[in-house]
Amino acid sequence: MASLARLAGRSEQEVMTFMTIPSTISGGPSIFQVRIGSGEVLSAGDQADMLLAFYDHSYKAHLSSLKPGGIVIYDADHLKAEDIPAENLGKYRHVGVAISSLTVEAIGGTGRDKGKNVFALGLLAKMFDLNVPKLTKLLTERFAGKDPKVAETALNAFNAGYNYQLATAPELFQFNPGENVGLSQVVMSGNEALAYGLIAAGVRFGAGYPITPWSDIMELLRRELPKYGGMFQQCEDEIASISMAIGASWGGRVAVTGSSGPGISLKTEALGWAVMAEMPLIVVDVQRGGPSTGMPTNIEQSDLNIACFGGHGDSPRVVIGTSSVEDCFYSAIEAVNIARKYSTPVVLLTDQGIATRIEAFKEPDLQKVMQDISPDLTPVTDHKPYDLSAPDGITRHLAPGTRIASGKYPVVTGLEHDELGHPTGSPKLHVQMVAKRRNKLKKLASELPVPTVYGPAEGQILLVSWGSAKGPVQEAVKVARAAGHAISSVHVKYVHPLPPGLEDIFAGFRHVFVVELNDEGFAGIGQMGALIRSHIPDAKIRGITKTDGLTWKVQEIIDRALQMAK
Amino acid sequence: MSESAILNLVSQRGPNTNTAPVAPLLDADRKPLTKKEVSADHPTWCPGCGDFAVLALYFKLIERRKMHHEKITTVAGIGCSSRFPYFVQAHGAHFIHGRALPFASGVSLSRPDLHVCVFGGDGDAFSIGGNHFTHTARKNIKLTYVVMDNSVYGLTKNQTSPTSPIGFKSKTDIWGSKDRPINPIKQAIAAGATFVARTSATNPNHVLAMMEAAMDHDGFSFIQCLSECVEFYPGAFDAATPRKGGVFNEVPKDHDVSDEYAAYKLADTAWPGLFGVYYKTQRPTKNANEQAIIQDLQGKTAGLEPWQILKKNFDRMK
């Protein structure tokens, strides 16, 4: 089905996929949702137009996600027509196709499971009048490098599906021409976009430990970085991986580590060191359901607190949330540049939903975005890493190997230190250094762009989103406004520190609801809600939260917002 | 979202660096660094601590090897001995407890032009950092690791360490320790270290000889250096100190250092054991293996700019 997404990308259409994989090694239902549109696609969609069910259990489990009058195509070899309840027949249009046996007929007895998907793709291509030359080209590319027989078999299965005469065929569908005419689009997952963004930003060293759903990023960087003269190390544990990345950052070029859930917990001590030593570092957190091992393959935004505050002591760092696949690419570059400019660790908070879903977006101008951040080892006259009198108050390190003519060399340390990094027990210096670490990020906050309101700047309800809630929230605004409700939204990309201007934006609305995928906690407000409240202590700021491990449905957001505003 | 939102690429050099041009120095014009030039803070160690000797010998090594100031890279974790980088006038890093090795590995792998020296204690190396010791050794990451073993936690004031002998009385083992101590030499050999040596801070010439041999080794070089804690475990190593009535027995001259089993057996010699190089073998370093992968893949993309390499990937995702 990923081929469908890729086709939509090539056809200048908007596309979004959503994959559900059980956290078991084998078995359990896998679901792959695809939403394709000629206009803007902001979320994975509340209800499906069509369900393709290969098995009896998938039919039963997912029929309710189909909209009334929707079409269900089922494998008649696995689900008998007589077993379908009469009430279902009245509600949805059923099309039974003996997918399994027809696939076997077309391609023989081997590779049946894979063939079934491709056969079904052929069926869909016919129904939706998809671009067949483009699809067959995609299939050929998909199996390139393998035995040519594999591609041949796939094409046979596709053609069998395409040429199958749907006896009870519903009408054919047709997409309007896409809006992204003339744009070259790329199609990839959020994890891929984030990893390629890091490469474009100039990152050449990373270290990590396997954990779902972060591992894809690690595997991609391991495979790709050597082409650029870099490397990615799989370490013995999470602590080693952040330590190694920090070591490489000190070596002169900001490095990356990352993880999900439990792995982030393990990294926090070393992250605190990077804050104290003011070392640039990128930490990717692909959030999943927590706490502890939690729900490894479900979506949650419950790592915001650990990203912002994890670790002991006062340890300010930067946290950025990613809101779409395209945003993963550019946020990675931005994170690297912030890490370098402010000499700080930056946590990139993405989540399981964005990590695995596939979207099409405008191909970046790679020549323009590719950065060279090689270490600068030119000798200097003198250097103080923690210079308290530096006009911008920001630390910048010299990499080992840089000659300092004064003969005074710095130490980077987790102990409270003086301007050269040597330990001090001076209360005065601790006060000054704590303030220095805080103030440089306040300076960053003041330089961040003021978020823009989606919809009118005044109204009844303002929905606040961060991370992956952006799409569903904006779609909720669209739908609710069409129904006459005065709802707008604002997306907060920079989570920590917060951008300027939020208070003024909030002033235009009677209610402010922070929409996020985590628990309301003891205070009845989610993690981002609480963070915003700590800056803007206004009781009209409340939370819309949930913890079912699924992405937001548009109607769910609207219903809850309207209910709370009553 | 578009490229316009990206912050501009910033320079590495900030106002905290005086970048006034520096006269170039030819290697030939550079004199060996004196002890004065290479020493920084006065050590915080107790008078009589064995670590002073190790520091002095590191200075000696730097002088002898005519190492340039900027190339000296000293890394440590947490513990008394781990304060080391503050006392050396050079680029140094004082990292968190137990994690000096992975930090140093990050430097070593990303900066092949530097030889990283890591200093630490027995708690840092074999207790909290035990996992990293094993994996840094087996991966054969090019760096030198000197563990100043005093068999007690000194900085936290007298608790049992992983190398404290059975019967050792500390604040956490007031009846005497019952746990079998780690044998660092056996640990290192079993983990796959390619250079394993043992020395004692009371024998300066021997320490220096071991350090020089470790520096010459292309791979993970490990030195266990007995270093007495005069405050919490005085007399711990008297049995190995001739002037205290002990014997400093060296590894037999006919020992084959490439024989892993023989080395392992020697490491079981009764207390105070033997001193010298136990094991030394040549195996490709992680550093070399990674460079080979880089060369291989770069050969396939020769002549392409980085953005063109990325473009090739993006073209496949259309």
Question: How do the helices and strands line up, and which of them pair or pack?
Answer:
The complex is a heterodimer of chains A (566) and B (318).
Chain A: H1 2-10, E1 14-20, E2 31-37, E3 48-53, H2 56-62, E4 66-75, H3 86-91, E5 93-97, H4 99-107, H5 112-127, H6 132-142, H7 148-163, E6 185-189, H8 190-201, E7 205-208, H9 215-224, E8 231-234, H10 238-250, E9 256-259, H11 261-277, E10 281-287, H12 304-309, E11 318-321, H13 325-342, E12 345-351, H14 352-356, E13 358-362, H15 366-369, E14 382-383, E15 411-413, H16 427-447, E16 453-454, E17 459-465, H17 470-482, E18 487-491, E19 494-496, H18 502-506, E20 509-516, H19 527-535, E21 541-545, H20 554-565
Parallel strand pairs in A: 3-4, 4-5, 7-8, 7-9, 9-10, 10-12, 11-12, 17-18, 17-20, 20-21
Antiparallel strand pairs in A: 1-2, 6-13, 11-19, 16-18
Chain B: E1 17-18, H1 35-38, H2 51-64, E2 72-76, E3 91-94, H3 100-110, E4 115-121, H4 122-128, H5 130-139, E5 143-149, E6 152-153, E7 159-160, H6 184-191, E8 195-200, H7 204-216, E9 220-226, H8 260-266, E10 276-280, H9 286-300, H10 306-315
Written description of the protein model:
- The complex is a heterodimer of chains A (566) and B (318).
- Chain A is α/β, with parallel strands linked by helices.
- In chain A, 39% of the residues lie in helices and 19% in strands.
- Chain A has 4 domains: 162 residues, Pyruvate-ferredoxin oxidoreductase, PFOR, domain III (Pyruvate-ferredoxin Oxidoreductase, domain 3, 3-Layer(aba) Sandwich); 183 residues, Rossmann fold, CATH 3.40.50.970; 72 residues, no CATH class; 113 residues, 3-Layer(aba) Sandwich (Rossmann fold), CATH 3.40.50.920.
- Chain A has a 7-stranded mixed sheet with strand order 8-7-9-10-12-11-19, with helices on both faces.
- Chain A is globular, with a radius of gyration of 26 Å.
- Chain A starts with a helix and ends with a helix.
- The relative contact order of chain A is 0.09.
- In chain B, strands 3-2-4-5-9-8-10 form a 7-stranded mixed sheet, with helices on both faces.
- Chain B is globular.
- The mean pLDDT of chain B is 95.
- At the A-B interface, helix 1, strand 6, helix 8, helix 10 and helix 11 of A face strand 1, strand 3, helix 3, helix 5 and helix 9 of B.
